[in-house]
Amino acid sequence: MTALAFILATLAFALFGLSTDEHHRKRLGARPDPVTVLRMRGGAWAAVAAAFPFAIGAQGWVFGPILWVALLMLGAGLVFLALNLIPAPAGRK
Amino acid sequence: MSGRGNAAAGSPWRKRGDMILRILAALPVGYAAATLWAIALSVTLPMRPEQATTVGMLVAFAICAVAAMWSFAAKSGWKAIWVLAVAGGVAAALTWMMTRGGGVA
Amino acid sequence: MSDLGDKGFRQSQAFLHTWSGLLLGWVLFAVFAAGTIAYYREGLNRWMRPELARVEQPEKVLAGAQRFLEGKAPDAKSWFITMPGATSHGATAFWVPQPKEGETRRRRRSDNQATIGADGQPATARETRGGEFFYRFHFDLYYMPVIYARWLVSIAALFMLVAILSGIVTHKKIFRDFFTLRRSKGQRSWLDGHNATAVLALPFHLMITYTGLVTLAVMLLPWATAVTFPKEGAFFEALYPEGPAVERTGRPAPLVDLTAIVRDAEAQLGGKAGYVEVVEPGDAAARVTVIRSGSTMLSSRTPQITYDGVTGKALRRSPETGAAVVTAGSMIGLHAGRYSSDWLRFLYFLCGVAGSVMVASGMVLWTVKRREKLPDPARPHFGFRLVERLNVAAIGGFPLGVAVMFWANRLLPVEMAGRAAWEVHCLFLAWGAALILSIVRKPQHNWVALLGLTGVLLAALPVFNLFGTERGLIASLWSGDMMLAGIDIAMLVFGAAFLALARRVARHKPAVPRVRRRAAAPAAVSADAQMEPAE
Q1: pLDDT score, position B10
Q2: Residue C390: count of CB within 10 angstroms of its CB
Q3: Per CB distance under 8 Å, which residues of B are interface residues toward C?
Q4: Looking at CA atoms only, how far is residue C403 from chain A in angstroms?
Q5: Inter-chain contact C223–B54, Cβ cutoff 8 Å?
Q6: Domain housing B88
Q7: To the nearest whole number, what is the mean pLDDT of chain C?
């Protein structure tokens, strides 16, 4: 349960991050068009919301929300580091 | 954003005065408004008095922070102060109503 | 500066953000750093007392505490025992003697306390404040009456709350800014670092600031109870009603076995016990109160049960607290993080580190931004110089002080009088030296010296532990003592980080700013004349 919530949280921020101009260009080739951005961010918010019930399932109603926020911060941090520190594939910069 | 385009608006004393007013709005006036609302909530909320008082305290910090933000967002230092004063006044009036009018003096 | 009222909303909030963050930023940095360290206060309590063994059997320690108190203070008015846990250094036993006729109450608890070690015997360990120092410092500061310190810290916390909220609304493109990290680009890199540490742990920062204010709510809002509870103490009486006061009868009666009572209490309360209080021990009217540990639930307002001290019968359980009080208690619980599991506590710690870096990078960012706007970069105005040097003193000095204090803990003679206080004095002596240095020498040299020295001192500590104590890293890992091992490893990591930072600063060579050409090529000058970003 916790693992699932964590995966969703990380996925959410990966989508948020890749929906920005710079990272989309670096990793996926071209600047994203507005529709893609909307879709990616919508998907990201959906993943954020989807992680919530799994966090509650893992730790109950008192500690579940805390776990949810913690996993979101953790996921955001990992994505931030990955996007900024893992070198982009050559020729895409 | 339309500005006050006359020459007097740019004088350093006026700017300093405006800044001082904003700081007064944020700190003492904002704090007073927050406390007044804490008191108002403590007598208005439909729960046991120690519970209501606790809620009032919890909310007061949010009011303090928002008051500070308002103090600097307002068009002028005077406006910052009087809006907060009115907010505090409403709280005071509410408290008065609940404690006299309701017969819970 | 144009009239503030003419600026847009975002700009006004950006102004507010800068100043509410800067004015008390130096206090905030020390408070944040100390609070972050305090998440491992129990571990540090043990680390700073290497003579003590790990507690494996809490019941044995409790029984030892009872035996000790029965021998030492059989006729005391009350005893107070902090229950030992897996991470604590032992049980602390306090006793309050009977008040004598005409004698005013002396508040020196340090005379009437003892540590009971893992074997149930009173432990002799070097006198030290341990991790408790960091916990206390982060709201009581030091060398001043606590009421002033708490007000200062609270105002700093309110400034920080305002800085966070105004920082959020001032953000135009939160997604783009959030993931951006431009490296080696001077001011923009500092901004990105500041944004990253701020936004990544934003829920934590908001929570910790707000809940921090809540912990001191009664002090900060004294008039909030003016209408509902005008009488002094009435508010607390309503929140936490006490049972009837205990009257000493004068008839001696043996005290029941505390371990049995604690076992029963833990079953009834649904969690481990945190504290045991005995009132009028050895008397027929003795009462034992067991208070549930704050580490077993979210709210800091933990329930308690009072037992008859002679028969062991449960007499009174604390009443259920209402929703508002549970909310406030949960907020305090969230702040303190005592309920957290090992990994969550580590995350709390990481968020605290992020917060400290956020505050520090914000203040450095201020000088970096202002430097490019200086009319004459070789002779900056007083305000700029003040901030630049205070930055060095606060951000470079406090970590150095902490490292020196840890060394004092290792090196000060064990029999030294006032040893615990002297460990703390060493922290402030080092910090004071950093302040003097920051006034006398150029900032860049000072950054390198302070950061480098801190790095060396921190990294050397685990090495000292290996040879100078029985609890070196290898011994800790071998015996599975992950807490002590973790602290040693953390010191190595932070030591290395400080050294890396010092190296970065040392290698940075600002180009000589060309004042004449400022108007022509501001971009080139500003890119060169900044400090290199730290990672």
Answers
A1: 63
A2: 19
A3: 1, 3-4, 9-10, 14-15, 18-19, 22, 34-35, 38-39, 42-43, 47-58, 60-62, 64-66, 68-69, 72-77, 95, 99
A4: 28
A5: no
A6: 28-101
A7: 87
Q: How many CB atoms lie within 10 A of CB C231?
A: 8
Q: In this structure, is residue B40 part of a structural domain?
A: yes
Q: Sheet harboring C287-292: ordered strands across?
A: C113-116, C91-96, C78-82, C273-279, C287-292, C304-308, C314-317
Tell me the shortest Cα–Cα distance from C389 to chain A, in angstroms: 31
Q: Is A52 an 8 Å CB contact of chain C?
A: no
Answer yes or no: do C179 and A21 touch at CB < 8 A.
Answer: no
Q: What tens digit of pLDDT does each residue of C131-154 get? A: 999 999 999 999 999 999 999 999
Q: Which long-range contacts (CB under 8 A, 24 or more apart) does C168-176 make?
A: C168/C202, C169/B69, C169/C9, C169/C10, C169/C13, C170/C10, C170/C13, C170/C14, C170/C17, C172/C10, C174/C199, C175/A16, C175/A19, C175/A20, C175/A41, C176/A20, C176/A21, C176/A22
Q: What is the mean pLDDT of residues C311-321?
A: 89
Question: Domain residues of chain A, as ranges?
Answer: 2-85
Phi, psi of C58, deg, nearest 5: -55, -35
The model carries a pTM of 0.90
Please name the helix (run of DSSP H) or strand (run of DSSP E) that holds residue C93, with its range, or none. Answer: strand C91-96
Q: Does residue B1 fall inside a structural domain?
A: no
Residue B79 in any domain: the answer is yes
A30 C-beta neighbours (distance < 10 Å), count: 9
Cross-chain CB nearest to B47 (options C9, C169, C322): C322
Q: How many domains does chain B have?
A: 1
What is the C-alpha radius of gyration for chain A, rounded to an integer number of angstroms?
A: 15
pLDDT confidence tier of residue C105, bands split at 50, 70 and 90: low
User: What number is the average pLDDT over the span C398-406?
Assistant: 97
B90 or C58: which leads in pLDDT: B90
pLDDT by residue (tens digit) across C174-190?
Answer: 767 788 888 777 778 88
Only one residue has tokens 């901004």, namely: C191
Choose, out of B14, B19, B22, B61, the residue to mutate when testing the contact with C (most C CBs < 10 Å).
Answer: B61
In a domain, B67, yes or no: yes
Neighbouring residues of A80: CB distance < 8 A, sequence distance ≥ 6 = A13, A17, C178, C179, C181, C196, C200
Q: Do chains B and A touch (3 or more CB pairs under 8 A)?
A: no
